[in-house]
Amino acid sequence: MSTLRSIVRGVGGYLPARIVTNEELSKTVDTSDEWIQQRVGIKQRHVAAEGEFTSDLAVHAARRALDNARLAQADIDLIIVATTTPDLTFPATAAIVQQKLGLHHGAAFDIQAVCSGFLYGLVTADSFLKSGMARRALVIGAETATRILDWTDRTTCVLFGDGAGAAVLELGGDGEHGILASSLRSDGHFADKLNTTGGPSTTQTIGHIHMEGKEVFRHAVGKITDVVENVLSATGYTVKDLDWFVPHQANLRIIQGAGEKLHIPPEKVIITVDRHANTSAASVPLALAEAVGDGRIKRGDLVMLEAMGGGFTWGASLIRW
Ligand code: UT7
Q1: Is 40 in the pocket of ligand 1 (CB under 6 A)?
Q2: Which of 16, 82, 161, 266 has its CA 20 to 30 A from that of 281?
Q3: What is the pLDDT of residues 206-250, one digit of tens each?
Q4: Residue among 46, 115, 195, 251 flagged as catalytic
Q5: Helices 33-40 and 252-262: angle between axes, nearest 10 degrees
Q6: Whole-prediction pTM
């Protein structure tokens, strides 16, 4: 009997129409295109329009993922939205997405693991499918991160952008395709290194993003390589077997550092940070949607996803596409 695995049937991404370049930002923030490109590799970011919410971005991405999967909304019985910027404190943004997709059946909930949220969502959906709790899942990473920025703090406000990415998962039994192995980690002792300055229970405000950038940077490469190596050793594959590396898009230098440490050739690394900036939970599915859409990632390819962010949280997932 072949092993049942969660297969990615389709992916989709959505970016708000408005683009803010580094040039434009440097008119209101004490920064420069040169500093941002040199330190982070970002050239521009997308910013959601007034009245455009995280759930709206999520719904656009979800519809594109369903089209890509050639499935209908009604086929979905599990919606997981990974987000740090929900429409409201409650209900879950996933419930609002469920409503906007016109669905009444199944289950919908949010996951909060900041930039690692999509990986956490993927692993949760994988477990639901394998246990028989759901048949087809929509896993969405969606953020309006620009809404929780302090626009007077140049150390954070130049780094983030808005967007959403989605994947449709379904259990399949060919034994080859699907999620082969995943590794999730967290260490709450680093909670104060990357957080918001407020929240419902503490300040009754949403707060702004606060980051000790150097500290986060110092931990990022080591933590990313650890989980990637865990996943490879769990499956018996090596770095040489990988067709694509799809990292969280926070900083080009972190991506390059992890790629070099793991000995992954740069041409196998999907990069979107230059155009999307850091879209937190949306960054990995957005990068996936781009690379599947332009034909780089094809059926049968071996794809490694990874992310690291607030918590700290970090994780990796190996998928036979
Ligand atoms: O998704 C979550 C994961 N997040 C990350 O992975 C982010 C990790 N951290 C980083 O990417 C980097 O630490 C940053 C890009 C945030 C900062 O880069 P850095 O090389 O660590 O710079 P720094 O904080 O040490 O700042 C160097 C200088 C400082 O000036 P002085 O004190 O040397 O005069 C800053 O004030 O750069 C200055 N600076 C800026 N200058 C122009 C900081 N931000 C800016 C800015 N524009 N936006």
Answers
A1: yes
A2: 266
A3: 999 999 999 999 999 999 999 999 999 999 999 999 999 999 999
A4: 115
A5: 20
A6: 0.97
